[in-house]
Amino acid sequence: MDKSPDAFRTISEVAEDLDLPQHVLRFWETRFTQIKPMKRGGGRRYYRPQDVELIKGIRYMLYDQGYTIKGVQKLLRENGNQFIIAIGRGDMAAVEAIAQQKATEAEAKADRAGDEEMLVGAPKAKPSRRFFGMARGEEDGPVAPDGGRLSRDNRALLQETLFDLLECKRLLDQVR
Q1: Residues 117-142, buried b or exposed e (16+ Cβ, 10 A)?
Q2: In Å, how far are 18, 59, 129 from 126, measured between CA atoms?
Q3: Looking at the predicted structure, is the pLDDT value of residue 67 above 60?
Q4: Domain boundaries, the chain
Q5: pTM for the complete prediction?
Q6: CA atoms within 13 A on the CB side of 147
Q7: Who contacts 158 (Cβ-Cβ below 8 Å, separation ≥6)?
Q8: What is the pLDDT of residue 58?
Q9: Residues contacting residue 13 through CB under 8 Å, at least 6 positions apart
Q10: What is the dotted CATH code of the domain comprising 9-113?
Q11: Who has greater pLDDT, 169 or 109?
């Protein structure tokens, strides 16, 4: 006898339906705060249909699309649960509608800010000197391909280029 589509599912049922080990579901609960199964006595988990749909979307993004956990967390933060659920269902019309709504909200926010030229969001964090291998005490810098040391100016150019590439990656991740 099959359960109703609105019925709660145990972790073993969800794991079997989505072809995931149970420990992965437990791990994802720690990484995605949006997954909140109801817990009964003894810690037994019961997943709501909404939780199962969200897990399907997360599974699709991680396993089929190659996103990292941080990437999916960012998508959830920026677009919300319904976006990931729609992706998991393969409902591209809903995905496009949600993306269009977010774009409209972003345009309205830019208009309110009065910044007509702002096409790109501000970077989330500036890379540190340590990130680029230029911590204090390493003034002679990284080694160039020819075995010599890079000049301070060349290191600065490489830093700037890498920062631009990281910003491009961030923007591409937003579009996905």
Answers
A1: eeeeeeeeeeeeeeebebeeeeeebe
A2: 39, 31, 10
A3: yes
A4: 9-113, 120-176
A5: 0.56
A6: 0
A7: 132, 150
A8: 93
A9: 3, 47
A10: 1.10.1660.10
A11: 169
